[in-house]
Amino acid sequence: MGSSRCGPARWLTFAAAAVLLGGCGLFNNTPPPPCPRISILRDAERVTLFRAGPGRDVNDIEFEAEIGEIRAACEIKGNQVAVRTQVAIFAARGPAAAGKPLALAYFVAITDPGGRIIAKEVFESPFGFKTNQKRAGVTEEIDQAIPLAGKVQAEDYDILVGFQLSAEQLEYNRRSRPR
């Protein structure tokens, strides 16, 4: 008979190592704690900035931007959940940009189990377009702590992300939404 590459002694050594490493969490299949739901608020996922004046056609666009992917990770710490959220924002220069700098206001809000906003903060994200660059992107990282009280769990909360829009910008988004 030929020799086995993994004889009984090696197999027992491997099995013992697996048990020891399993105790250290290497093979730990425990799922991460449930996080608050995170989503982009409909109609606030994009913004179009026009040059000053009454024009609102494609030639009047200075910048267009949208919130791309959002990711969150959380950790339960005593009676609160710590949430780290990453927000990807992409922007494009329009015909009317003329080398202008861009800083976009976006918000992150937390709603309680009843849907009421319990916290909201507005952030500004600057974009550094190079001379001939048409598109740019940034990823912002936000840390939040949400207190947990009574029987309320982390997954009972929602985190909403969107651009901080004027009434005119919101109406433009609603009118130009794909149907």
Please outline the helices and strands.
Elements: H1 8-23, E1 37-40, E2 46-50, E3 61-77, E4 80-93, E5 102-111, E6 117-127, E7 135-147, E8 158-163, H2 167-175
Parallel strand pairs: 1-8
Antiparallel strand pairs: 2-3, 3-4, 4-7, 5-6, 5-8
Q: What features would you describe in this structure?
A:
This protein folds into two domains: 1-30; 32-175, C2 domain (Immunoglobulin-like, Sandwich). Helices cover 14% and strands 45% of the residues. The chain has helices at residues 8-23, 167-175, and strands at residues 37-40, 46-50, 61-77, 80-93, 102-111, 117-127, 135-147, 158-163. The strands form two sheets. Strands 1-8-5-6 form a four-stranded mixed sheet, with no helix packed on it. A four-stranded antiparallel sheet has the order 2-3-4-7.
Assign the CATH topology of the largest domain.
Immunoglobulin-like
Look at the structure and name the CATH superfamily of the largest domain. C2 domain
Mean pLDDT: 83
Number-wise, the strands total 8
Outline: elongated
CATH architecture label name of the largest domain: Sandwich
Strand order of the largest sheet: 1-8-5-6
Q: N-to-C terminal Cα separation, in Å?
A: 71 Å
CATH class of the largest domain: Mainly Beta
Relative helix content = 10-25%
Proportion of residues in β-strands: 35-45%
The total count of helices amounts to 2
Contiguous uncertain segments of 5+ residues: 1-26
How many structural domains does the protein architecture include?
Answer: 2
* Radius of gyration from the alpha-carbon trace, in angstroms: 24 Å
Could you give a short account of the major beta sheet?
Answer: 4 strands, mixed
What would you call the structural class? mainly beta
Give the H and E element order: HEEEEEEEEH
